[in-house]
Structure formats: C-alpha cells, structure tokens
Design a protein that fits this description.
The chain has one domain: Ribonuclease Z/Hydroxyacylglutathione hydrolase-like (Metallo-beta-lactamase, Chain A, 4-Layer Sandwich). Helices cover about 20% and strands about 25% of the residues. The chain is α/β, with parallel strands linked by helices and about 270 residues long. It has helices at about 20-30, 55-60, 110-115, 180-190, 215-225, 250-260, and strands at about 1-5, 40-45, 45-50, 70-75, 105, 125-130, 135-140, 140-150, 160-165, 165-170, 195-200, 230-240, 260-265, 270. It has 6 helices and 14 strands. The strands form 2 sheets. The chain has a 7-stranded mixed sheet, covered by helices on one side. Bound molecules: zinc ion (3 copies). One zinc ion (ZN) binds near residues 76, 81 and 152.
Length: about 270
C-alpha cells in the first residue's frame, strides 16, 4: 500500500498565507520540504483523502489527473480539508471529454450540505455517499471505516481506517487525542495497523484541544501500542503542522526521531 502526502500543513499553510513570523520567513527562505500546503493525501494513486483549496495545485505538483479520480473520502468540512468549489469546472464548457469518471465524495452530512452550495455543479458528474461512523464500507478497491474524530464538534468529523489486501492504514487527521469510543472500537477489531499517521499540529508545543503535538501523539501512540493496534514494526508518521510550532523541517525531524516518528512533507510517498 502507498500513502502519498500531497499537503502537510495546518489550515493556514506554512508559510502561512499572510504571515511574517520568523518560522514562516524561514520556510520562505529555505523552500523545499519547508513549504507545506493544505491537507490532502492519496492512497495507492486511487483514493483521495480530502479536497482542500490546494487540490488543483496538488494535481499539478504530483501529476494527478483529477478527471480519473472516482472516490474521495472527506474527514470534515474545515476549508483546509474540504473546499470543493473547483467542482464547478467539471463539465460543460469548462472540461472536455464528459465521458470522464464521475467523482463521488464519501463523508458526513456536512459534506453533502457543502456540495449543495457549489454553483454550476453538474450533478451527474459529482456523487455523494453518506458514510456512517464505525461501519466498514467498500469503496473501490478499499474497505474504509469512518471513525469518530475529536475535532470540529458541530459535525461528525472523521478519521479513517483504510484496508486493502490485509494492509491497514490509520489516518488520524484532524483530531485531538482519540475518544475512548474510537480506541475501544479499534481494539475490538483485534487488528493492528501497518501505518499510523498522527495529527501533529502543535509540533513541539502542547496542543490540548482538537489537535495534537508531539507530546500528545506520542501518548496516543503508546496507548495504541498497549492495545495491540500498533506493533513494533508499524510505521508511525506525524503530519499536519502549524507554523506556530517549530523552526523548520530539520527541527521537526530531530524531535520526531526521538519519539520514533517519521515526518511528512509535501509529495512524500510512504510504502508499507
Ligand atoms: Zn486541518
Ligand atoms: Zn508564521
Ligand atoms: Zn480541521
């Protein structure tokens, strides 16, 4: 299984859109892995996770033909994860070859509401399927289970368990320390994950509400380990970083290494 990180920043990007703080200035100077766009990932080149404002840019930087993508699972409707206004350009005069694939968004009820707000969207080209929490659902070549996230309480925010050919990815963006209900559900499955991607918005700072930093991600990782959900050989990554939390990519790597985590960057592919 392959996870490609397309965007690895928190909501405002890093460098942040309008920010002149030392961390953003440094990211602008250094470039490369220090430049992080809004949150999106691709599994096995087929299944998109989220559709943020930077989706079009990701399609160019990672060479993804969006017309070929059939399924998108959505975590929640913060704009750094779901900003689907480009769907207005899927059809009629804006895109040729209308025999192209229909794109279906899978997620909570707020996703459906947001899709209903897109002007000029051609409904035959864009589908929606409600994903109930804690119910394994077949999506293309994957079995996907939406899990309740500790995040954005005015909707059912999700994190995901994604399974293909007995490989398991636990994608934990965005969330604070997981609810006991979610941990118990995973423990009850009696399975372990091959890759876990932890929210690390706070980076080296503690981040108590809605997100995690290194400290909370490490605590959660230990808790999952004690329940057998993480094995000694499980790949553990941190991702979704805020400019408030650290100097640069190198610092993040140094801190992450102490705790046994790998650090995401835009266009990193991890095979597991
Ligand atoms: Zn986010
Ligand atoms: Zn900044
Ligand atoms: Zn969010």
């Amino acid at each position: 299984m392959k996870l490609t990180y397309l965007g690895t920043a928190a909501a405002e990007g890093w460098p942040a859109v309008f920010c002149e703080c030392p961390n953003c200035k440094r990211a602008r100077e250094l470039g490369g892995k220090n430049v992080r766009t809004r949150s999106q990932a691709l599994v096995d080149g087929e299944l998109l996770i989220d559709f943020p404002v930077d989706t079009y840019y990701h399609s160019l930087s990672a060479g993804i033909e969006l017309s070929k993508i059939e399924d998108v699972i959505v975590t929640h409707t913060h704009p750094d994860h779901f900003s689907p206004y480009d769907l207005a350009y899927k059809g009629e005069v804006y895109s040729a070859r209308l025999e192209q694939k229909k794109i279906t968004f899978h997620g909570n009820a707020a996703v459906k509401k947001r899709l209903g707000e897109i002007p000029y969207m051609i409904e035959e080209n864009v589908g929606y399927e409600y994903l109930p929490p804690f119910v394994p659902t077949r999506i293309g070549n994957f079995e996907v289970t939406a899990l309740k996230a500790n995040h954005k309480r005015d909707e059912d925010a999700y994190v995901y368990l994604i399974v293909r050919d007995k490989k398991r990815l636990l994608y934990l963006h965005d969330t604070g320390y997981l609810y006991p209900q979610t941990i118990e559900y995973l423990e009850g499955l009696g399975i372990s994950a091959d890759l876990v991607s932890f929210d690390c918005t706070g980076c080296v700072k503690r981040w108590i509400k809605n997100h995690m930093g290194f400290y909370e991600a490490f605590a959660l990782s230990r808790a999952l380990e004690l329940r057998g959900i993480i094995r000694p050989d499980t790949v553990k990554m941190v991702n979704h970083f805020s400019h408030n939390g650290a100097w640069d990519h190198e610092t993040l790597c140094r801190e992450a290494d102490k705790l046994g985590f790998g650090v995401s960057y835009d266009n990193l592919t991890v095979e597991f």
